[in-house]
Specification:
mainly alpha; 131 residues; 0% strand
Length: 131
């Protein structure tokens, strides 16, 4: 014999109903409304679970980043990119310069040498053949 969810003492529905309200909502709301309530309740729990998983993933990525910065040479290897961004930030004023002037500065930034004489050539490489 197959028992319905509200009769089967092992079902999540029965456990929830017993734990939360001693089965009163079934009598108050009727079976259709109560099933809708449970569907929303359990979907909310799934959503919260997904948010927790996202939070844990972000926390893990931040920890990996901190470890790379503090314990590896990642920051030194990538430092020239930060120097490039600073060089550009000191020279570009979007509200006061035209697109052409900003592009000229971006292209000029490619000729600068940063940490360990590394340049940043991705703008020139991206423009090749597009002008």
């Amino acid at each position: 014999m197959i028992l319905s969810a509200y009769q089967n003492e092992e079902s999540e529905f029965f456990k929830f109903s017993n734990r939360e309200s001693s089965h009163r909502p079934r009598a108050i709301l009727g079976k259709t409304n109560y099933y809708q309530f449970l569907k929303e309740k359990f979907e909310l729990k799934i959503l919260k679970s997904e948010n927790v998983q996202i939070h844990l993933k972000i926390r893990d990525l931040i920890q990996k980043y901190k470890n790379a910065v503090l314990n590896e040479n990642w920051l030194y290897v990538e430092l020239y990119k930060f120097e490039w961004a600073n060089w550009l930030t000191e020279r570009v004023v979007f509200e006061e310069q035209t697109d052409e002037e900003i592009l000229e500065l971006c292209l000029a930034s490619q000729n600068e040498n940063y940490t360990d004489s590394k340049g940043v050539q991705f703008i020139k490489q991206g423009c090749t053949g597009k002008t």
